[in-house]
Amino acid sequence: MKAYDFLLAIETEEIPDWMISGALSDLQRLFLEAVQAGQGAGCGPGGPPHQHVETYATPRRLVLVARQIPEKEPDAKETLTGPPVSAGPKAAEGFARKLGIEPAQLKQVTTPKGEYFTHTRKVKGRRTRDLLATALPGVVLGIDWPKKMTWTSRTGPRFIRPIRRLIALYGDRVVPFEIAGVVSSNVASGHRRLGRDIRKVISFEDLVSRLRDNAVILDPAERRARIESGIAGWRARPNRQLLETLVHITEYPTPLLGNFDPHYLTLPEEVLVTVMQHHQKYFSVEDENGRLAPQFIAVMNIADDADGLVRHGNERVLRARFNDARFFWETDQKRPLAERVDDLKHVTFHKDLGSYYDKTQRTVEWVRRLEGNEHAQRAALLAKCDLTTELVKEFTELQGVVGGLYARAQGEPEPVALAIYDQYEPVPRTPEGQIVALADRLDTLESFFRLELMPTGSKDPFALRRAALGVVRILIEGGHRFPIPADLRGFLLERVRHYFSERYAYDEINAVLAGRWEALPDVAERLEAIHQVRPTPDFEPLAASFKRIRNILRQASFTSDAVPDPARLEPGPERDLYDRACRVRDHAGSLSYQEALAAIATLRPQVDLFFDKVLVMAPDPAVRQNRLAFLSQLLRDFSTLADFSEIVISGD
Amino acid sequence: MTFQDLVFTLKRYWAKHGCLIQEPYDVEVGAGTMCPETFLRVLGPTPYRVAYVQPSRRPADGRYGDNPNRLYKHMQLQVILKPSPPDIIELYMKSLEAIGIDLRRHDFKLEEDNWEAPTLGAWGIGWQVMLDGLEISQFTYFQQCGGIELDVVPVELTYGLERIAAFLQNVDSVYDIRWNDQVTYREVRYQEELQFSIYNFEKADVATLWKSFDLWEGECRRLLEDGRATLAAYDCVLKCSHLFNLLDARGAISVTERVAVIARVRDLAVGVAQAWAVSTVLCSPPKSENTEEVLQDFHSRFNKGLSKPVI
Fold this sequence. Notes:
The structure holds two protein chains of two kinds. Chain A is of the alpha+beta class. Chain A has helices at about 20-35, 90-100, 130-140, 205-215, 220-230, 240-250, 270-280, 310-335, 355-370, 375-380, 390-395, 400-410, 415-420, 430-450, 465-475, 490-500, 505-515, 520-535, 540-555, 575-590, 595-600, 605-615, 620-640, and strands at about 5-10, 55-60, 60-70, 75-85, 105-110, 115-125, 165-170, 175, 180, 180-185, 255-260, 285, 290-300, 350, 355. In chain A, the strands form five sheets. A five-stranded antiparallel sheet of chain A has the order 2-3-1-7-8, with helices on one face. The longest helix of chain A is centred in the middle third of the chain and has 25 residues, at about 310-335. In chain B, strands 1, 2, 3, 4, 5, 6, 7, 8 and 9 form a nine-stranded mixed sheet that branches.
């Protein structure tokens, strides 16, 4: 059977850059679903394996090319069942007439329900071009965008931005379909100003090369390479995310190097970089010593800037932005942070939780409870004051950072400045910063919990899960041994599980959390220990034995904390296990977690022998009770590090 | 190109493309979108094209005439095309070429920027238009206005005239813009920026502003109940909205109050939009002889998603 390539280009108005890659994978999936729905007639022509479908995009077009799709679906056979043979020849005639055949052509088939007339006929597969024409509107409009719009009327189709042209070719023939009055064709658009319409496109290769002639580089990888080679040697500060944005907001990217007046370098680098990278989408540039240079790199959507017009325009905009920032910086300095604490009374934290002033008081109290030093307490007092500054009102993303910079400029001790600077970081760099961030988050969590505003399902309007994860990370990564507040325990443990699930198996996490522990750093160490010891041959069988002990105790309804009487233990496997277990237990206290676990694992032969030779549920009640007490003590003694019965054994 | 030539040229350009050229609305507004020519005309199915310059007041943005880029009052050229034509971006680009910007030699980008006006119950999808790194326009396909999903999707183009003029004249301060060949922007507007900054930040009497807000709100509700003077009711909404901005600039609205006051203005705007939508439909040939049915149809559509129907 003949097979042809298929090309689809959806031309739209500018699609938000961050949505493009998701849309392309959606498009590919929807297309494959349409052509590979299954086997046989009505199920698509089958065709290209996954790797033969490629997708590309610019801000104004999503393009899919699929190689070698057979020109029609395979033919298939279809068997129709008619009336039962017992219904007689009249019924058979009726059935045959309905199918437009002679009664003699009917077959008789025996089924579990009896004998029936049947007829098997051939069904011709649909032509791929027809099938595509039917499927394409659904494929295009099926793309799942984060936020859709309508551009015709309330009832019109919804897409990310208006669809303006559709190019659909199977082989070199147009596949006819229509969306919102746009009829598919073989005409594509070039760059908005450096190109023109591209008529009679005949293939993907033809489209790519003629797009290039019309100042559109279709492949994002090639645009990325063009930017990267353009800025090579300009000492741009690497910024992956910005690079991706620039790749996806241009059709023909060309970098240019601009300058700004070096006297702006007296402003904090954080402010300058935020203006350049976030607000203006420029790369910032370093000098040979790695310091910020008075230069920037903009990426334009045209081929060159021969007259320097674009550079001049961008320099002008940056100057205005820097002027604003300098004005705010100077204005803010007139009132030091320390004088702004009272101003926080006018900044609401939450309508039922008072102002940021109230929050500050609570946070300072928390810092004291966490035994934070005077620097930590001072930082907590000043931490939110930057909310009242002009610079933060302008650059909200610099909250905290600005406070830290002002604190330093105003002569606060360096640990205070750093703690303020880092307060929104997942894990601040200094102990003071960690205490302040911890106090801030714990207060937030407790306050919202008091109002019963805990997150539900996917709704977490106050970002409490993030705050909780922050608490967990600081405790673990900062090695803080504060006990978890009882009222937050359940919520924080969820985050603990989440945090560890990246590295450890869930049963390991369950085992450690079910053990006896006081502080999260212990949990982290024990998890690592279990993780290390787990692959050793004795560990899992021992864990299985612990599970067995737990079951025996449960079945015997044994819950007391009674201590076994060693004198009543039978010499042999029971007494041996007892002696060995006591030695391991007494010794384990002086070992690292991993050594302790390894030591516990050495109990395995004695445990196995015990279960082999000793009947726990002895007929003599006194012996039985003593034995159960022994097992119970064994379980208690060795479940403090982790509850091994939580370990899931392969083959369980 | 002088400031006034810029305005002439753009107006003439859009007149050529079928826009009615309107004059600025005479009640204080924060943006051209708030004028009845936009806010009310985009409702309902009737096609409309209009362009006008709207002086837009944002009290909190005032800087006593000191800041070269920030103004208490700036001029917007507002263009509404309903329905939106398929070649609208091309039309917009040609308008830039009409004022002398050669787009083959400048960096033109459309960057995602969706517009939302909570006080108007309005939102749209669109971009900020970037020219050599400068935001010169806002480009929006309206989706909802006054809480009502729009029957026909209009496109709104908002040109920041001071920015474009400063760009064209290559000056760093808006005050250095030549308004015509003899007079600068400073000569025309500096005193206004200075004096209104004094008023907005220092002198406006908070108690009076709150009282006025309450009075205009009451007036609006009274008119909405009567239902025959929706346009007058809308003026009251604009008054409230401006008073809100003044109170905000004065620092008289806490974050908590803010949400509540926005909701009050929004309720009024939604009430006006609904009343207007119904009245325009009643004035156009009805789909059904039965007025009751027509009304019901609209109530069922327009009340969808509203907190409380006003009519």
